[in-house]
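This part of the workshop introduces the protein records we will be handling. An example says more than a description, so a record of this kind follows.
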Amino acid sequence: MFELIGIPPQALFGQLLLGLINGAFYAVLSLGLALIFGLLNIINFTHGAQYMMGAFVAWLMLRYAGIGYWPSLIVAPVVVAVVGIVIERLLLRRLYHLDHLYGLLLTFGLALIIEGTFRQIYGISGQPYAIPKELSGGYDLGFMFLPTYRAWVVLASLAACLGTWLLIEKTRLGAYLRAGTENATLVRAFGVNVPVMVTLTYGFGVALAAFAGVLAAPIYSVNPLMGSNLIIVVFAVVVIGGMGSILGSVITGYALGLIEGLTKVFYPEASSTVIFIIMAIVLLIKPAGLFGRAT
């Protein structure tokens, strides 16, 4: 079949694997964005910088403290989440009842400040981060070679996405979070501290971005621009899936990663724009997104 379309199977499955890897990062990052927007009503443009911070925290821990990859998967998201909580308490809390544009402008400015600070300290050259020994090597599947670390990234992202969806949709805490965005006064009547709940929600969304940054560190070079190169695509994923839709962000992230990989095989020139073309088509047909609800 592959000979009929003139494409070697190794090339096709290789690009599908790359697309799946990209989709894994799209899914985790867009999940954090959708969570923050859906529950806090803030368009968090700082998300790309927080993704970069997660990778840098893991790299700094390894370089200066000798703390390896596995502890970094937990410690780096917690560190970046604490920074996010400080931002939410000092700045974002003042914007919840204002137009979305104010939150977007503030978080965009914060992203520029964070990226500029890291660029001033570390420059724009990438810092290498070694793959842990337990995940080195790969598997020869006959039609392609599957690196162990890339398989781990897909599985880890799936676990993070599934765990977050279950937390939001199937637990009492998730019900309080969703109810708090609709009627905070009623939720307070049940004894729930809504401001603390909102703060922790923002911290959790930021932690997802940092978790994706740690996963990305051994694949991509750790540099201050790694978030800005990705955040526009992730925003497109969120818009296509539906702003605030948890499930929509996850499904759309993986699907668009695969579509992007296939485009690199059949029409490489369009691979960098195919997601935005899909976004334009979806907005024309269903402005709320594939899984979003019209307001």
